[in-house]
Amino acid sequence: MRSVLIALGGLVTMAAFAQDTTRTYHAPAVVVTGSRLEVARQSLPLTVSVVPEDEIDRSRTEQLLSLVARRVPGMFVTERGVTGYGVATGSAGQISMRGIGGNPTTQVLMLIDGAPQIMGLMGHHLPDAYAASDAQRVEVVRGPASVLYGSNAMGGVVNIITRKQASPGFSGSVSALAGSYGTQKYSARGGWSGDRVTTTASVNHDRTDGHRRGSSFSMNNGYLSARIPIDDRWTVSGDANLALYKSFDPGPDTLAVSFTDHWVDIRRGKASLKVENRHDGLKGAAHLFVNYGVHKIYDGFESNDRDLGLMLYQGITLGSANLLTVGVDVKSYGGAADNPRLPAPARATLFSTRKDFSVSELAAYATVQHSFSPQLIVSGGLRANRHSLYGTEMVPQAGASYALSEATTARASVSRGYRSPAIRELYLFPPKNPDLQPERMWNYEAGASHTMFDGQLSIEATLFLAEGENLIKPSGVPPNVRNINTGAFTHRGIELEAGLSLENGLSVRSLYSYLSVNTPVTAAPEHDLFLEGSMPLGPVAVSANVRVVSGLTTLVAPRRSASYTLLGLEASSRVTSAVELFANLENLLDERYEINAFYPMPGRTIMGGIRVGL
Length: 614
Hints:
Blueprint: H1 2-15, E1 30-31, E2 39-40, E3 48-51, H2 53-58, H3 64-69, E4 75-77, E5 95-97, E6 108-112, E7 115-116, E8 135-142, H4 146-149, E9 156-162, E10 169-179, E11 183-193, E12 198-208, E13 217-229, E14 234-248, E15 263-279, E16 282-297, E17 302-318, E18 322-338, H5 344-351, E19 356-371, E20 376-387, E21 391-403, E22 408-419, H6 423-427, E23 439-452, E24 457-469, E25 472-477, E26 480-485, E27 489-501, E28 507-517, E29 527-537, E30 540-555, E31 560-574, E32 579-586, E33 594-596, E34 599-600, E35 605-613
Parallel strand pairs: 6-9
Antiparallel strand pairs: 1-2, 3-8, 4-5, 6-7, 8-9, 10-11, 10-35, 11-12, 12-13, 13-14, 14-15, 15-16, 16-17, 17-18, 18-19, 19-20, 20-21, 21-22, 22-23, 23-24, 24-27, 25-26, 27-28, 28-29, 29-30, 30-31, 31-32, 32-35, 33-34
């Protein structure tokens, strides 16, 4: 059954029976993540996917990263339950981009409005801090973006663009959802746009009892932003976010009894201030950001971390054919960790010779985009990154896009990615190793896109080859385990996406990715197919989807893998112009499967709710 569906999905994709990726799914005309500045997506040699606002709004029951992964080929996110990813043992939320991501995710960089979101000590993001209601769109770079974003962007970038008030006056909405396993979600957001200031604000609350004993989760999240135009040339904006959540880990299902007291208590906050300029062929910004976290775990571990920096970049239009972008990044991150419950000798083993750590980076980069003709656009870039521990790293990138016709564009690129070891890998917890070296890789890719029937039908294909070295992995037999730089790796594959959107409201989407790796890695399925069709039936909009995952490694040693097929249904109905009802049925066939080893996923689940516009 699975092999038939995978083959069918490939044929459907090549025939383009999917939702229109140009107009309603894959790309608004302009993106920022692959260039720092707003440019036409078709002019970028990089592979950039976009999940727009209407897609996020339509999927009201999903976690944000899970929603994005189902709409971006080559991207996979691990899950463990109805809501909440958790941290430490038993956590999920691992992002894999073409099999590159790390566990936990340190090789794919999370951004919010272009600002990095990592834990200063651990070097990875915390996905429970992101609320779908705050996202206007999500842009994903599939492949290295280290030229623009430095370390941690080795495998790719996920940039959450937050919502902005677009219309004058006030607008907003409130929503409530309830469903299986005592799951509840509530959110409220609003915005105001006046003559001199535009503001947005939101609050969110999620909770669930969990589908296993001891797997409950609760979260409160608040967001506030403001934007003030000084004059026609200068704009000042700022935002702040605070997330408080508590997650329980039930442990692997191999235990006779689930854990009921294995919890983590997290406080994550962020703030940023940006000054933008736009005049006379110049466009750029000074972007100051800070992230912090306070974490407590049931076993007595406590930590606080920080990540702050300043990003300066300026785009310069040189005539009608050239765009030069130059930038400087200054970053500092670190924190402190301790476990006062442990005796002194054990604490020394756990935290090396000190408990407070700090690392800094200083980088300068330049990119240029030149139009040799209306059809041919060539771009290149170079970054010099100075790390306080590892010295200077040079990161190049080059590519080109060529419009074969108004409907067909081809592109190719070569780029280097790198990642410096996280403080956790160097100094915290066995298997720490202060002698680790940075990870490095080269990525080669080529792709083409084509549209037909006035943009109603679109097809895109991408081929890639990633070759890297120095991957950091634990080695040895407990208790003598140590992080080491391992040998080379090679990942290659193909990503297909296509879309059909008709005037009668019928739309069908297809995404498929194939990945071949020389050594097994977790969160990297060999085949990943997603098919979805939607159509209005009178006052009700109905959508059905199927996802087929094959050859997913859930545990490397000893080798454990999973394959599964999931069916889902969604429906929504607008009762009035301001009131909408919605429902979602997942895992319709009640399939038993796992994404994390020994953590079974929920069976059939149903969610329903209401949204009211203000």
